[in-house]
Amino acid sequence: MRSLPLPLALTARLSPVVVLAAAGWALSSGPYAATPAAEDRTTQQADDDKSPSAPATAVVSKTYGTAPAPCDGLGKKTIDSLVPNAKTAGKEIPSTDSKLRRTCSWNALKGYDYRWLDVSFEITASDDAARTSFKERVAARSGGGEVPGIGDSGYSVVNLTTEDKQQTREGVVLVRVSNALVSVTYSGSDFESKKAPGTDEINKGAIRAAKEAVAALKDGQKG
Description:
The chain is built from five helices and seven strands, in the order αααβββαββββα. It has helices spanning 6-28, 36-50, 76-82, 127-139, 199-219, and strands at residues 91-93, 101-110, 113-123, 145-146, 153-163, 166-177, 180-190. It is α+β, with helices and mostly antiparallel strands. The radius of gyration is 39 Å and the shape is globular. The protein has a seven-stranded antiparallel β-sheet with strand order 1-2-3-7-6-5-4, sandwiched between helices. Helices cover 35% and strands 27% of the residues. The longest helix is centred in the N-terminal third of the chain and has 23 residues, at 6-28. Strand 5 (153-163) and strand 6 form a beta hairpin.
């Protein structure tokens, strides 16, 4: 059998390649090819399914960035009135984060009459955080009432305790001012009579200190 002429043999060998190439053209560029628009829609849909919509940027209301110096929150006249014989400078209580939480304490004994006063400032992340914390703290205490005209929200409560026949009356005032919380604790005992000062005296003293502390907060550094 004679060999086919070279051009004819080459044509025979290339025939399968031509057929496959033609088939490939039909799938990629011919009538059976997927339209670009359909592919784009499929890809876009897949991307949309994978990517959640971006949340709107939340605006956080935050008026105060740092807690003020608590021992500077009350004037000498107020300290002398509420805690006779106490040093005006007071004593700051160590804090794990002095930028966000600071407390000052005054205490003294005049004769047999003892008084103790604490003023605390706490800075939260936002107004909402402060509002939630304030509500939780109020809920944890009972028997008190609202204090109008002080900060955004104010609450006071007075309790009497007795230990070894010695009475102690303690008043607590909680105040929210934007994203800051102000807390005042004022207590007293008479070690001679074993009696405690009256409810009205303790409550009014705590509210007086709270109002002055709130004023100091507003006049202090803001974020």
